[in-house]
Amino acid sequence: MQCMECAKSGMRREAVALCHCCSAGLCLEHAEVAPKRLERVAPLCKVEDLPVQARAVLCHVCRTALQQRHLPLSA
Ligand SMILES: [Zn+2]
Ligand SMILES: [Zn+2]
What we know:
- By secondary structure, the chain is of the alpha+beta class.
- The protein is built from 2 helices and 6 strands, in the order αββββββα.
- It has one domain (about 5-65).
- It is elongated and about 55 Å long.
- It starts with a helix and ends in an 8-residue tail after the last helix.
- The chain binds zinc ion (ZN) (2 copies).
């Protein structure tokens, strides 16, 4: 698979990851790694963050879109 962002600018570069959100192929330069909060539901409907965060690979478009309203990165 080729990097979609590179392909748009006429280059061919091997993709090393997929965007978590839109599944676009991304090279190392275009893959943006965001921390992904993990939550567990505690009694009384409280949601707690777990101490260790996972990661989510996103393209620039999805990263920007997800940050605009402080949405949690949920699968
Ligand atoms: Zn690229
Ligand atoms: Zn994306």
